[in-house]
Amino acid sequence: MLFHTWIFLIFFLIVYPVYLLVRRNNAAMNLWLMLASYTFYGWWNPNYLALLFCTSAIDYLMVVLMERSKTQQRRKLWLIISLVSNFGFLGYFKYSGFFTDNINWLIDYVHNGFHVPDSIHVAAFHLPNPVWYPNKILTLFGAPVDKLFTEVVLPIGISFHTFQSMSYTIDAYKGTIQTERSFVRFLTFVSFFPQLVAGPIERAKNLLPQLQSTPKITSEDIGDGLSLFLVGFFKKVALADYLGTYVQKVYGAEGELGMPAHFQAPALILATVAFAWQIYFDFSGYTDMARGLARMMGFRMMLNFNNPYVATGLGDFWNRWHISLSTWFKDYVYFPLGGSRGAKWKTYRNVFITMVVSGLWHGAAWRYIVWGAIHATGRVLTFDLERNPTYKERIPMFVKQCAVFAFANLAWVFFRAQNMSDAWLVISRVFTSGFKTPDGKFADPQFPLLMLLMIAAVWLYEILFASGSGTASGTGTAGQSRLKRLLEIPAFNVGLALLMIAYLLVVAQPGSKAFIYFQF
Q: pTM, whole model, 2 decimals?
């Protein structure tokens, strides 16, 4: 169920009034939100409701058992079971095909390397298709052939709700949060529909206390929530989807290989820049809508984007981009590895590992791993530079911002390309195809001028109005420039809202394209 569809509007018009009626009874409120959230998630594929419930139930039970354990070893055992089950489900549904294909390729490579004569007929062992494992179990129980799985389908948002549930278990083990007594309330925490499928990844210490009390809803909450939702809707429908038509034309849709070979450097460069803004508008648009819906219900969710394309360093970029995930990896991967304690090379190692794991989190493909490795390399090489007083004070801010944006675009090539071959093709053609066609004329990238003007306007807005420092945790508000005081004038806000609505009605393309991060 997509936020920008009529189906969701009908869904919310049913859920919200009932929520207002029952919210003063905490048990009834959580039960209603849980049922609504499971309906929201099951609308896509009811079969995966069992997965959502199972992962949540295991984590809830493990924390209860932790609390009752008398020894640290027993507590650690329940933590390990929780982690194994979470990574097991995530690994099977998201990575089993990737690892199976690569292990089988390696087996073939080694087998062929021995040059076994054909007359011997020694066949290489191969891992079976991942669907073989559940089908084998179903067969043992007498399931008919037509009931067996044909492929492993990635459940929408599995990485998000798995990480959210798992963080509760880890924090409970550390003793930084209290055990949640209500099973229904915990199910609501994991499945809360505004942020269920694409974040932000909420921590138990932020969202659970809000679910334990009666949320206060003021007229300001309604107004701010509607404004956030409108801004997110505009980002998605008017900006991200519009940019996506051009990006797809150049990079190709799924299954269209070698599309970049048809285009010269200008189109490839503009398509890459367009994708950088497309994915930002798409993902931050979802976050804005999610936070807006939650705000109208009286809940405060963490800031997930803080104008990342005005970052002055790669560390700053990752403090601004997908903040809920960045802080998750910092707390549960970087710090356990040792963080910045110890020798300098260990800090670099920890940064590199964290960024590569972040790349793998985004998808089961080598291009995502390379994307993470590019950012990892950049973070390691600039780790000390970004802390150097000369760099911080002497280099013009705009120069640093352009350098970070250019680096991010280089990495986005691997994120957006259909495969590694296409990614290298894009990079090579940018430097070899030139800016002219064979007849000597300058290549026309055929990029919509309106879109170029809108991107320029957004970037200028971010630089002039919203380039504050923000907070390291991402839960605070962004630093404000003096020009940003315009946004505090009601008439100015109303004017912006009317302009966005007018654009959506007159110019924006119809459709209901899924959010990019649904696949992660």
A: 0.86
